[in-house]
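FORM 7B: Structural annotation worksheet

SECTION A. Query
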Amino acid sequence: MAADTAIFVSKRLQRAAFAILCLIAAQFVLASCEPEPSPMAARVGTLGGY
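SECTION B. Predicted structure
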């Protein structure tokens, strides 16, 4: 009976750990998709024509 309880708890922990890993991976994917901000000099040169 103790072994059944341990297996049940470990299965629940595996699911929770997998969900957390998926969320972390999604954060990395979304962070890599965002464009990097351009330098201020490049923006001034293209917008103002100085």
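SECTION C. Observations
Helices lie at 2-33, 40-47. The chain has one domain: 1-48.

SECTION D. Sign-off
Analyst initials: ____
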